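Hi Y.,

Following your request, here is the sequence exactly as I used it, all 100 residues.
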Amino acid sequence: MSKPVEFRNEAFTDFSNPANRKAQEEAIALVRSRLGREYPILIGGKEFRTPEKITSINPARKSEVVGVFQKGTAELALQALENGWQAFESWKRVPAEKRA
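Below is the corresponding structure, written out as tokens. Let me know if you'd prefer a different format.
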């Protein structure tokens, strides 16, 4: 088993450096381009969409939809549990380092 890595805060990034600033602006643009998308429920590699949705709103900008998510059902939850137990059988003896 590998030794846990000690937690350390990430070093501050100097955004007055043009390369750092550009990388941050590109990252923000990528996230913004994905706002408002609808996401399916994934179970065993299959996508499921439901009639009821949950809309996630940016609390700092209430007009901004972060994403729209499917509202799960009891049947989908049971299906996910079944799928999880089946998957567990194939990887339960795989070392944690390899699973990670």
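The longest strand covers residues 65-70.

Thanks again,
Q.
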